[in-house]
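This entry is passed on directly below:
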Amino acid sequence: MAVIANNLTKIYRLKGRIFKTAVNDISFSIPTGEIAAFIGPNGAGKSTTIKMLTGILTPDGGSVSINNLSFPKGRKKIMLRIGTVFGQKSVLCWDIPVLDTLKLFKDMYGVPDGVYKQNMEMFSDILGLDEFINQAPRLLSLGQRMKADLAASLLHNPDVLFLDEPTIGIDVLSKERIRNFILAVNKERKTTIILTTHDVSDIETLCEKMLIIDKGNLLYDGTLTELKAMYKTTDLEEIIKKIYLNGMPEDYGRQKGAVNA
């Protein structure tokens, strides 16, 4: 397994003796080379979980394993083997050309010249990076910045890529280009990808495995096909609405237990 979360828990102290459990004892695994959707309503615990998986936050309970490496002992090696994109928080240097930021990342990660050249050609071919690579991020559209962020996150050929709402606020054509790029990276490099999104089209186009979280609890861990079969419909948006409003069917836990047994 590329990613294993074991009994992950995160509790925030709000004020005085008031505490909030953001993530409540959740466990799951993502096989190598798979694209998994990690979804839930606003405030469900998605971003908190992603931050624990990437080492930004320390869990109050449980553990994380990335390709058989664990925090905190394996932090440095893990950082060299993962890539992250947070849709609303760019890693780009705001006032210098995108190309200069990518050269900086090349030096930081020790990317060989040949690998750098090959990746830059891929970024230009699929993302159209060459169209704006000499401009500063502050002059770019949201879609262009997201493409540049994707390039920065994949420059060092990570084994695992975390994408937190990568298509938020982006036009239809840019979304299609980004989705095609994600599929190409997954197919060619067998990169394991965990995607959080509110866009059903992202899930339908990219993912087979699905994880659904709400109020810090993991409600569903399975495939998109199984979920549609359970609800006897192909309308994923309608299924998700029902889960957010009513939770999973009462017999889901029993069915899952029977399968695991």
